Amino acid sequence: MNYRLLVQAGLATALAFILMIAGTGTTRAQTFNPQLNVVLEDPTPGANSSFTTDFNLPEGDVQFAGVVTFIPAEWTIAPGEQIAIGAVVGELTAQATLGLINAACNNALPVHFIMLNASIDITDTVPFLDVDDNGTEDYAENRDESSLQDGFEKYPDFLTRALADENDQPLQPIRRAAGIAIVAGVNVLLQFLVFEPGTFIDESIPHDASLGYPSVVTLQNAGDPAFDPEPGPITDFCTPLTSNNTAFAITKDNPCTDVVPVSELDPVCEVVSAPLELLEDAPATDPDEGGAAQLTNPKDSTYKFTVIGVGQRDTDSDGIENSLDTCAFEPNEGDPRVNGDGDEDLDGLDSGCDPEPNVTNSDQDSDGYLNRGDNCPLDANGEDEADIPAVGNQRDTDDDVIGDACDPDPDDADAQGDLIVTQTEFDLVVGSGTGEPGPWEDGGTVSDGGSDDGGGGSGLIIVIVVVVIAAVLVVGGGGFFLMRRGRGGGAT
Ligand SMILES: [Ca+2]
Ligand SMILES: [Ca+2]
Ligand SMILES: [Ca+2]
Ligand SMILES: [Ca+2]
């Protein structure tokens, strides 16, 4: 398909960096060795060039808790407000490994997101959850019967809580890209948000303005402090993980916004507001959101690209992260990725701590959460315990994926086990790589109209808002929220 050809051409002609990021000098058994590969499709100074980023974690590594990418401040892209809402701005393909309904974590599940430019008006929000209780999350509905679902046209409410400053005031992004995919029957919302340099994102992540513009990835409503969990079908999310993400230099038309009768649109439009696949030779529709320049390379020089990856905690140092470890305080007898390994009775509870290793009990503490989807498999902390202080409904005050009900130190800021933080910098060469760094100042090589600054005419006013390319990554913010906290609901 044409998209693959494009990527391959990029790989062949452009600069590619492949790096192995070593874990920090910990003696823990847990390993976290993300593999990163960034390709700038066209390294010509001033060119409108797409970025393609691969982010992979090998099998056996702990899953990531978060990934933030910093793109050098000299890159120029249009701010989100200058791009039509619903314009196709990128694409992500990933292969995730999931455990479903208390089985081993070994289901390889391909996921594909078409990313659309989305509203950054933090005062006009839509609930992430199914507040009106009609079976569909409110962000995935289309109440105004426009051509786009509400989560693109309004700002999902949890972001105002999950991405807030020290005074709980919501952070203002300068761009947001959003995509919806259906994974294991669940609507999944993936978002890339870009903030001004120096923005405080999280205490684990440096907020040094010189690093560039932080790009944060969220999956579902990860990190929402107001969220009330419920049991779900996805009980684990583990390695291996592979992902490939492209941020387009020039936006593409979204055929789902075409002003034709709904019956003439692809039925998938009603579900995710985007086509299943992007066709290179598709005719433009009305309105045509394509042709707007998003990304412009800076001047000839060498620039630093920084990625900070955070690996999940492993309290008992048995190499299995807490979110995957049903015996978080005991070395496991088997590998939770292998069916029945160390778990003779196939109840998801490793024999290292199974009180009845030969009696199958898929919900050992009878709290409604299957063992593999329970952050305290041996202590009742289900929805019935929601109002009990020090227990709660899967409450995990220190975010170490060990519930307060079984955490010996639930309020300790140090949490149980270490986060592995990797910071990787590498050089991205534009042109010969030898000049003085700086943003491209004459508007670049914008190929055609469609944006306010397109067209290349004289008297062109360029608003240089240097932003980042959400060129990056996967599923940040802790994939474990996806299965530990289910998909929400219950906020009636
Ligand atoms: Ca263990
Ligand atoms: Ca067992
Ligand atoms: Ca429990
Ligand atoms: Ca905890």
Quickly list its features.
12-stranded antiparallel β-sheet; mainly beta; disordered N terminus; two-stranded antiparallel sheet; binds calcium ion
Explain what this protein looks like in three dimensions.
By secondary structure, the chain is mainly beta. It has a domain at 38-51 and 63-311 and 419-484. 6% of the residues lie in helices and 25% in strands. The chain is built from five helices and 16 strands. The chain has a twelve-stranded antiparallel β-sheet. The chain has a two-stranded antiparallel ribbon with strand order 5-14. It has a two-stranded parallel sheet with strand order 8-9. β10 and β11 form a beta hairpin. It is globular. The protein binds calcium ion (4 copies). One calcium ion is lined by residues 396, 398, 400, 402, 404, 407, 410.
- N-to-C span: 45 Å
Q: Describe the sheet with the most strands.
A: 12 strands, antiparallel
Q: What's the mean pLDDT score?
A: 81
Number of separate strands: 16
Helical content band: under 10%
**Integer-rounded radius of gyration:** 23 Å
Shape assignment: globular
Indicate the proportion of strand residues.
25-35%
Q: Helix count, per DSSP?
A: 5
- Read across the widest sheet, the strand sequence of neighbours is 1-2-3-13-6-7-10-11-12-4-15-16
- Unreliably modeled segments: 1-28, 443-492
Secondary structure category? mainly beta
